[in-house]
Amino acid sequence: MVILFLPWKLISCFNPLHLFFLFLTGLIRDTMGAFLDKPKMEKYNSCGEGNNLRYGLSSMQGWRVEMEDAHTAVIGLPHALDHWSFFAVYDGHAGSQVAKYCCEHLLEHITSNSDFQRALQEDPSVDNVKNGIRTGFLQIDEHMRTISEKKHGVDRSGSTAVGVMISPSHIYFINCGDSRGLLSRGGAVHFFTQDHKPNNPLEKERIQKAGGSVMIQRVNGSLAVSRALGDFDYKCVHGKGPTEQLVSPEPEVYAIERCEGEDEFIILACDGIWDVMGNEQLCDFVRSRLEVTDDLERVSNEIVDTCLYKGSRDNMSVVLICFPGAPKVSPDAVKKEADLDKYLEGKVEEIIKKQGDEGVPDLVHVMRTLASESIPNLPPGGELASKRTVIEAMYNKLNPYRSDDTYLLKEEG
Ligand SMILES: *[C@@H]1O[C@H](CO)[C@@H](O)[C@H](O)[C@H]1NC(C)=O
Ligand SMILES: *[C@@H]1O[C@H](CO)[C@@H](O)[C@H](O)[C@H]1NC(C)=O
Predict the structure, then answer these.
(1) What is the DSSP letter of 347?
(2) Are strands 9-11 and 43-50 parallel, antiparallel or unpaired?
(3) Domains identified in the chain and CATH numbers
(4) Nearest ligand to the CA atom of 233
C-alpha cells in the first residue's frame, strides 16, 4: 500500500513521522478505496526553513506523471549571502525546457553577474541589487538563445518567472510575465506584482514598436504573455535590443523594506491560481489555513485543490513563504474547523438519506445542494470549494456504488 501510495505524492522532506503518516493514509485510503482514483490531483511538494523563514510549495501538473520541478527555493545564497534567500515559480509554455533551465540556473546568473557583485562589494545600494537582478535575467535569456541556436532552434518553449529575493533588510519582488507574487502585511495585502499582459498600454506600445500587434489579447494573436524568458521566435526583430522585442525578458523588480513583526507571508503563484482567486481572497484563505495548521505544504496543497474545484484548468504552482509574523495556529480555529467538517459530513449523510429509494445521488447533486444552503464558518476565500475533499471523502464512504472514476470537474458545465 505504501508503495502504491508514495509515488502519488512525492515528498522531499522525509522524516519518520511523515512516513508513518503516509503509511497510515495509505492504509486508510486502501481500506476505504476512496482516493486513488484522482491522477489529476497528483502533486509535487517540498518544504523547508531557515533565515527565520518557513516555506512550503505545491504544484499539480495535470494528468501526466511527468514531475518537472518549476520552482526554486534556496535559503542561504552563494557568494557568502548566507542571510539571503531566493524563491521563484516558473510557468512554462510550449514545452518545459526553458522553465527547467531557469529553475536550475537563474539564481546563479543573478548572483554571479558583475552588476550584482558590484551591489555586494563596491556600492551596496538597493538600486544596484535591482540592476543586478535585471542583468541576470537578460544574461540567462541570451545564454539560452545561444544554446537554442546551436540546436538549430528546436526549442520553442518559454517561461514566465515570478520570484522574491529576501535580504536581511529588503524583499525584492521580481516579475517577468503573468504569474504573480504578493506580500501580506499586518492582515492585509500590502503589495502585489503587475501581470505582463499584451494589452497593458506599455506592453502594447513595445509590441507595436517592434512591428507586432495585439489581437485577442495576445501577441500577434498567439502568445498570451508579453514578457517571458525563452520564446525566441518572438525575439528576432532586427535593429531592436533585447528589451524592445515582441516579448521581453526584462523583469520588473520592486524593493520593499522589511517590516519585522508586521510581515506575514508571501505567495508566489502562476496564473492558474490567480485566474480563480483574487489577491484578497487568496490572502484571507491562507490566513485562515495558517490558523488551523502550521504545515505549509498542506496549506499549499489546499490552495491548489481549492483552485481546481473553483474551476481552474491550468497547471498550478504555488510557493508560500512565512515570516515570523505570520498567523499562528489557534485552538479556537482548529475546533471551529473540526466542527465544520463534522457539520458537512452530517449534511452529506442527510442529503444521501433524503434521496431514499431513488438511489444515491451523484456528488454533483450533493455539491449543488450544499452550495444552495448557507453553511456557517466556511473558510473565507476558499468557501465550499475548499471543503470539497472532506465532502467527497464522506460521500465515498456512504456510497456503496461508488465508481472508481468519479472525476468531478463535470459540475462546472
Ligand atoms: C500543463 O498542463 C497541460 C495540460 O494538462 C500539459 O499539456 C502541459 O504539459 C503542462 N505544462 C507543464 C509545464 O507542466
Ligand atoms: C508578428 O506580426 C508581424 C506583423 O504581421 C510580423 O511581421 C512578425 O513576423 C510576426 N512575428 C511573429 C513571431 O509572429
Answers:
(1) H
(2) parallel
(3) 35-327 (3.60.40.10), 332-398 (1.10.10.430)
(4) 2
